[in-house]
Amino acid sequence: KIVQDMTQPLSHYYINASHNTYLIEDQLRGPADINGYVRALKMSCRSIELDVCDGPDNEPIICNRNNMTSPLAFRNVIEVINKLAFFASEYPLILCLGNHCSVQQQKVVVQHMKR
After folding, report:
1. Is 5 inside a domain boundary?
2. What is the pTM for the complete model shown?
3. 25 is in which domain, residue-wise?
4. 87 occurs within a structural domain
5. 65-105, pLDDT tens digit by residue?
6. Pairing between strand 61-62 and 47-53?
7. Residue 95's beta-bridge partner residues?
8. pLDDT tens for each residue of 19-56
9. What region holds the Phosphatidylinositol-specific phospholipase C X domain (predicted)?
10. Cα separation of 89 and 59, whole Å?
11. pLDDT at position 68, please?
């Protein structure tokens, strides 16, 4: 149940956020795991980071271009977010997209997010 006054500017609220959500142990070497998103959403995170890069077969991936972690399929991550976005909180969920995709794969990102 939403109990806060939701008419104020976004900057007036404390927002439970997650950075490098998919990295469940080490921020440089991973491992990367979709359960990082599951855990964050179940802990009422309201801002989640998604670094999206071009992936194989025209399917975008979640990755960090500056480290050695294995990528996650964007499609799988967005499905988990869609399923659990309001599992623990009814407050708005902010998706912070770090877009590192070609125009072609940006269109695929949009299609996955519309589902």
Report:
1. no
2. 0.89
3. 10-114
4. yes
5. 766 678 999 999 999 999 999 999 998 999 999 999 999 99
6. antiparallel
7. 48
8. 888 888 777 666 889 999 999 999 999 999 999 999 99
9. 4-115
10. 30
11. 65
